[in-house]
Amino acid sequence: IRDSLAVFRFPAYVLHTVALLLFFIAMSVQIWIPAYLHRVFALTNPQASGFLAQVLLYTLPMGLIGGYFSSLLLRQYRWGFPLFLASTSLLAALAFSLAYSSPTLSHAQVGIAAGIAAFGFSAGTLTTLIVETVPPHLRNSAMAYSIVLTSGLAGVIGPELVGQLSDRYTLGVAMYVAPVAYASAGAVWLVLALWQARSQSGTTTA
User: Which of 22, 83, 107, 206 has the smallest set of CB atoms within 10 Å of its CB?
Assistant: First the structure.
């Protein structure tokens, strides 16, 4: 265990893990989307669930497409992947903010679909950056800790936080957990991109 904890000695891994935690908190909020559409726009539960299912199905290839092109175009730049993740997360934050502030059902649905497509576009890059921020002998440990923090911890925090805020305020207000978390993740990835760009520039100069 002590040897595996060495992954947290690498600032790039720590920053990426923090961003991943925020990202997956935001992503886990999508389980509330059918309830949001039902309560705010009076869609029936089957209609609301059917809409989300279709969006998830049609945007499924986005991760493959984004992963392929990011690897093709950005692999030679240390800052390329985190900058790509920052961009897509900030776009997702914008799309969901517009969706949850819209009084029109069609506009809200377009915003939700755009937000899901935006964060889905970077899905293939998330894992790639995990293994590229630590030495090869620590990659298994890096992946294991990331899974625990994202699929485990974040998957509990996001839905629970929305539920608590919904009880205290309304679900319409609580749903803003997603865009805030996406924007926060994007900001952390932007810091990582700038730090890696400076490191790469210093290495090149040296």
Answer: 206
The tokens of 63 are what?
């991760």
- Domains annotated for the chain, with CATH where assigned, are 4-198 (1.20.1250.20)
| CA 60/CA 186 separation, integer angstroms | 21
CA dihedral 198, 203, 204, 206 (to 10 degrees): 120
Whether 181 and 158 have beta carbons less than 8 Å apart is answered as yes
Q: What is the pLDDT of residue 51?
A: 96
Instruction: Give the relative orientation of helices 177-205 and 80-101 as an angle to the nearest 10 degrees.
Output: 160
What's the mean pLDDT when you consider all of the chain? 89
Give pLDDT tens digits for 78-113: 778 899 899 999 999 999 999 999 999 999 999 999
Q: What is the mean pLDDT of residues 24-28?
A: 93
42 φ/ψ sector (left φ>0, alpha ψ -120 to 50, else beta): left
Which DSSP string corresponds to 101-123?
A: H-SSHHHHHHHHHHHHHHHHHTH
Please give the Cα distance from 189 to 172 (Å, whole number). 27
**Which whole-number Å values give the CA distances from 195 to 17, 19, 124, 148, in the listed order?**
15, 14, 22, 26
Residues 137-173: tens digit of each pLDDT? 999 999 999 888 887 888 899 999 999 999 999 999 9
Nearest to 128 by CA among 114, 146, 115, 116: 146
